[in-house]
Amino acid sequence: MTSKLVPIALAFTLCCGLAPAHADDAERYEVTVTNLTRGQQFTPILVVSHKPGVKLFELGKPASTGLAILAEEGNPAPLAAALAAMPGTGETVSGNGLTNPGASTRLVIEARRGFRQFSIAAMLIPTNDAFVAINAAALPRGDDTLALTALAYDSGTERNDETCASIPGPLFAECGGSGGGAAPAGGEEGYVHIHAGIHGIGNFKPAARDWRNPVALVTVRRIH
Fold first, then answer.
1. Which helix (H) or strand (E) holds 82?
2. How far apart are CA 223 and CA 40, in angstroms?
3. How far is residue 37's CA from residue 42's CA, in Å, rounded to a whole number?
4. CA of 205: how far to CAs of 69, 148, 149, 200, 208, in Å?
5. Which of 103, 165, 205, 217 pairs with 37 at a CA distance of 20 to 30 A?
6. CB within 8 Å of 58: residues ≥ 6 apart
7. Is there a contact between 108 and 48 (Cβ–Cβ < 8 Å)?
8. Is residue 201 a contact partner of residue 161, using CB atoms and an 8 Å limit?
9. What's the gap between Cα 167 and its chain centre?
10. Is 196 exposed, middle or buried (0-12, 13-18, 19+ CB in 10 A)?
11. Is residue 175 left, alpha or beta, with left meaning phi > 0 and alpha meaning psi from -120 to 50?
């Protein structure tokens, strides 16, 4: 479990790109993420190109510190920095706003020869530590368009108490304003797993906030 040291507002205004020097064999891809839920927003979306073998997480194993911060706070910067420091990573790009239900966000990423896989991640709000992800997929060949559906995962780093005090965010009707973002102590699962949704044990009710997987449609096409 991580402490909420980074304000969620930082994530909502963040736009970062950690890129290698341009190479002649690099190609650019447009990644479009469409929110398929009816009551969840996506925080700024992280997209990374990488070599085979690089993964954001492994199901059944503990989340990294960077992934935990993204899943609990909506801030992609620590995970982006950790990925950029890995030799198997190409370019890391983050969006700068929320993706509302039914809306789409487009990001452009560069991939060099040998770095032709990609991953994405973003927090779902209002949740304690849910995130949407594509965890290592091959970029499309030639002029093909790739279409994938993405699931919602639980980072296992925070107890799902579903309360305004624990969930960060800019404005929730159930809270009469912004969320609090405190980290409830104890009860976290300790490993990444498929998220079980909103159960109505706190301030947020399933009728408005629950979902069924998949939660996003991700399309990728080469633009250069």
1. helix 77-84
2. 30
3. 10
4. 24, 29, 25, 4, 6
5. 165
6. 192
7. no
8. yes
9. 16
10. exposed
11. alpha
CA atoms within a 13 Å half-sphere pointing along the CA-CB vector of 69: 20
Q: How many CA atoms lie within 13 A of 159 on its CB side?
A: 11
First-to-last CA distance in the chain?
A: 41
d(CA 170, CA 61): 31
Phi, psi for residue 22 in degrees, rounded to 5: -65, 135
127-173 tens-digit pLDDT: 999 999 999 999 999 999 999 999 999 999 999 999 999 999 999 99
Q: What is the pLDDT of residues 80-105, one digit of tens each?
A: 999 999 999 999 999 999 999 999 99
Q: How many helices (H) and strands (E) does the chain have?
A: 4, 11
3-state secondary structure of 120: strand
Taking alpha carbons only, the member of 133, 176, 181 closest to residue 153 is 133
Task: Read off the pTM.
Answer: 0.89
Q: What is the 3-state secondary structure (H, E, C) of 144-165?
A: CEEEEEEEEEECCCCCCCCCCC
